[in-house]
Structure prediction request, 304 residues.
Amino acid sequence: MVIPIPIYVVVFVFGLVFGSFFNVCIHRWPQEEKTDHEWIKTPSNCPKCRAPIRWYDNIPLIGWLRLGGKCRDCKAPIHWRYPAVELGNALLWTGSLYLVTTYGLSNVAPENIGIAHIIFVIFLASIWLIGMVTDFEHTLIPDEVWLPNLIAAVVFMFAAAPYTISQGWLSSLYGLLMFAGFIAMFWFFGGMGFGDVLVALGFGIIFGWPLSNVALFLGILSGGIVAIPLLIYVRLVQKKKGRAEMPFGPWLFLGCYVSLFFGTAIKDWYLSTFLPSGTGAGAVPAAILHQLLDLYLAAVGLIS
Prediction:
């Protein structure tokens, strides 16, 4: 499927606009009562002086640049996260559109990609971006992230059938039990938050078995790569002892995003590279889970 350049431009602009709205979600969802809905009712305002933000200062990316990153009224700095999320979401939307129409999805060839797949991928990219930034800033994955993620996973299984990433509902059930169960095990012992468990429910349905292993593997691997320099900085530079906490949710989102498009290719490469030829099919799940467990325990050990 070839997408004309003007369509990419339109998608990029809408990505900027929605990115501005996502900033409101990131800022307000973790801080308000579930029944207030102030994130919808209250106009945008300066977090410090509460002055309403004028419409021409609220133009995505341009407004922040025109103001020099400061409030027009009180001159308080406006966090760089605001333009970063706007630009990041625009790039995510255009990049996701290119990837899904060019490479397809894991277990879904490009020629079988339809409008349901495109909407699904762009929606997931948005909700995962919100979850990633919220977890970084507040060490929290709010209900407004994990619940839409779960609903989208179920809807996608119906709307896109038979061209889904998971190869059927039984595969999704196995993926859910493995993904959420693995995370829940470490939540039980205090190593992760419960939000990680809840968001893993949707991940398991989306990827099924065995691709849930790939998504989890990539999340653990990327988190472990970051944990090493974090440990060095905390222990050698700051000279602190004890635990260096790091949210795990962002790395799960990252691993799942990569797995959307390249999960099957990564799985095939892994099995052909690290498992001896002639290995029985029954040994494959055990071998992958063994690698996952070793990597996660190593990462936990580094930041403990």
About this structure: The chain has a mean pLDDT of 84. Residues 194-237 form the longest helix (44 residues). Residues 103 and 110 are 6 Å apart (CA to CA). The two ends are 48 Å apart (CA to CA).
